[in-house]
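Problem 12. The chain below contains 212 residues. Write out its predicted structure in token notation.
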Amino acid sequence: MRGYFVSFEGPDGAGKSTVLKEVLNQIGLELKTQYLVTREPGGSKIAEKIRDIILDPANDKMDNKTEALLYAASRSQHVEEIIRPALKEGKVVFSDRYVDSSLAYQGAGRDLGIQKVKQINDFATDKLDPDLTFFLDLDPEVGLKRIEKLRPGQEDRLEQENLAFHKKVYAGFLKVKETYPERFVTVDATQPIDQVVAQVIATLKQRMPELF
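Solution.
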């Protein structure tokens, strides 16, 4: 069986990590193949060190291009060390964020241009795209309020950006989603988490029945 690559995207506070964890709590034993859960930025020892640099609030003078290139560098290491080997072994890879986040955050949010950031990441990943991407759809203002409530005073450097930035990021996600409709599935993240999880599981079983 070939490997499958599934990514979870969405604005800050949409609940990607929580949803992914609960999905696998429910279907992990059903899957006919091994799976790997990972995240971006990060996912490997080197990539996690780059993550620390990117998200550290103390690095408030970081240039936008530097930020985009650091994300791409972290991703390149992540893909070559973790994701691609797992796919070659026939595993299902579930990633909390991937290239689409860079297109939205740096391409749209930082005004670097979605296409330009896409080119950087095509080089970094050798154009490795997910088979399926879940977009957890949530108004960015609601997402930021969730984060403030869950982790008051512990927001990372990007979470600390103003609402205008996060609205540009959200608009970027919508544009990316429209560009790749064949792999994107939108899930309303305002629903109770059990409904979000149920929709994700139903979609996985519909799109990838051979895994169950």
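Discussion. The domain at 4-211 is CATH 3.40.50.300 (Rossmann fold). Students who got a different answer should revisit the alignment rule from Section 12.3.
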